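This section describes the prediction task in plain terms. A model, or a person checking by hand, is given the sequence of a single protein chain and must write out its three-dimensional structure as a string of tokens. No templates, partner chains or ligands are provided. The sample shown here is typical of the held-out split.
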Amino acid sequence: MKSKFLGLKRAALFICAAVLCVWLGRPESASGIWNGTLAFFGLGDFAACADTYPMSMHVLDVGKADAIFVECGGKYMLIDGGMPDSGKNVSRYLKRRGVDTLEFVFNSHPDEDHIGGLACIINDFSVKKYFAPCVPGNILPQNDAYTDTQAALKGRHITSGVPKAGDTYFLGGLKIDVLGPLKQGLTVNNNSIILKLTYGSVSFLLTGDAEKEEENSLLEGGADLSADVLKVAHHGSGTSTTQAFLSAVHPRCAAVSVGYDRNKLPKGEVMERLYSAGASVYRTDVSGTLLFMTDGKTISIKTEK
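The expected answer:
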């Protein structure tokens, strides 16, 4: 009986310490205590397995929206933040991973389901560099999701940079190549920032909501689109992921960030093209958050459910 009481007391102290660390704004301390507390109860934090890999990409389950978290060598970046109501959940996930500073935040394009949660992220974390595409003023969204993000950037004195095709950045040992957009598109989607992440011999292609027009532009530009993991564009919409584009990428794995909506995504023809290309397809609406981990040679995949 005494042993059981001491165990409960120890657990209570762990939980109190975790809450205190979060309150003091020290998520890196809270992360370790949180994992320790879960382990004490015989539970496990889903993403804790990423701790044993030098690089991981987390395709977060944010419904029919995008939020992709990347960590490498103790450095962190985020690509998109989901809808406005996703911001707090994305923030909590990052804090559990020990994040207090994001080296890079990329907004692939300013549609609400990609930019919506970023105001929350900007207010909750130190952001060293923020990037967004140059979108023509006549198609630039002026909804609350966009204006709130601009206000958050201004409030934190963060300048928004515009990455150009050919630019390269590094996150620890991870190489980040900007492949597009190569030219200004006529729609918001076709101004999506396209990123290729390379760690060792393993690569990831992140395509925002690029549609066939931007895909064709990349193909015509001769970019090396080959990648082991493809983040499928536009939530599996039929306007994207053409056969020609898939043939150039030739992915081993494909991640679809999607949730239920009236458009019934991902479209059957897109799924068929992915399967025909030999890709193993993972969907957030089926499997929850998708975790891709690598040592630079092999890829390990874990899903939340």
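For orientation: The chain has two domains: 1-44, 47-303.
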